UniProtKB/TrEMBL annotation:
InterPro entries: AB_hydrolase_fold, DUF676_lipase-like, SERAC1. Residues 3-128 form the DUF676 domain. PANTHER family: DUF676 DOMAIN-CONTAINING PROTEIN, PROTEIN SERAC1. This is DUF676 domain-containing protein. Belongs to the putative lipase ROG1 family.
Length: 255
């Protein structure tokens, strides 16, 4: 089985998932999930997909392009016959959820190339994913936070910000196209319960797809950043994530 993690806006393939406080570093995908699954005698390959999601950089990558690259990376990791049939579970944070959904939409549109890959996707774990867009006040404050990058001569890539605005065309299109094709998936959704600064970035109404095959629950003590970070001592906050991953994996394996 393969678990594929996809980070969000201004994220990083490792840092997004790392609690990284002054006392300990804990990347739960590396330090906790394998041990949790091994107790059920399950071995999983865990991949973390990285792409340039910076607001200010030289990149002009779009969600569609990030999705294309994700699909091709996965094909590259699944060349052997025994690899092609491995079930896939996606774990996505924020913008990463839009990338995952768009990847599946594009895979459905090119089913001849991605048919085996599509058949292998069994479930998705969404963490603070703005299916309906995010609070515009949060994104409006980002340019001021990014001024140091401008002084370094880096140009802005506003595409991701526009895609994340509440009820943006990208959010609406991707969610609409995804829900019609997601009926066979198990979907577990977690949404924020604490403000980031003064704002709930992705509220419950935006974080949920309202599908019959989706289970959506709040994650206690989590804001938009910490919803995907769990230190080694945070057992109570991590427990619902652990249970959701195990549920998706066991179902994906047909047990």
């Amino acid at each position: 089985l393969s678990i594929v993690a996809v980070h969000g806006l201004m994220g990083h393939w490792e840092n997004t998932w790392n609690a990284g406080n002054s006392h300990e570093d804990a990347m739960f995908l590396r330090d906790r999930v394998p041990a949790d699954l091994s107790r059920n005698r399950i071995r999983a390959r865990i991949f973390s997909y990285g792409y340039d999601s910076a607001v200010f950089s030289r990149s002009v990558v779009t969600i569609d392009q990030a999705a294309d690259m994700l699909l091709e990376r996965l094909l590259g990791k699944r060349k052997k016959p025994e690899e092609k049939c491995r079930p896939i579970i996606f774990i996505a944070h924020s913008l990463g959820g839009l990338v995952v959904k768009q990847a599946m939409i594009q895979a459905w549109s090119h089913s001849q190339r991605y048919n085996e890959l599509l058949d292998s996707v069994k479930g998705c774990l969404f963490l603070g994913v703005p299916h309906g867009g995010a609070d515009s006040a949060y994104w409006a404050n980002l340019p001021a936070q990014m001024i140091p990058y401008v002084t370094l001569g880096l140009r802005g890539n506003p595409r991701f910000l526009r895609s994340l605005e509440s009820k943006s065309a990208d959010c609406v299109r991707i969610s609409r196209d995804f829900v019609h094709r997601a009926v066979s998936l198990r979907i577990r959704t977690f949404y924020e319960t604490e403000k980031l600064g003064t704002i709930i970035v992705v509220d419950r109404s935006s974080a949920t797809l309202n599908l019959p095959n989706e289970v959506a629950v709040p994650l206690d003590g989590s804001n938009h950043v910490t919803i995907c970070k769990f230190s080694a001592s945070e057992n109570q906050r991590y427990e619902p994530i652990k249970d959701a991953i195990e549920e998706l994996v066991i179902a994906g394996l047909g047990r």
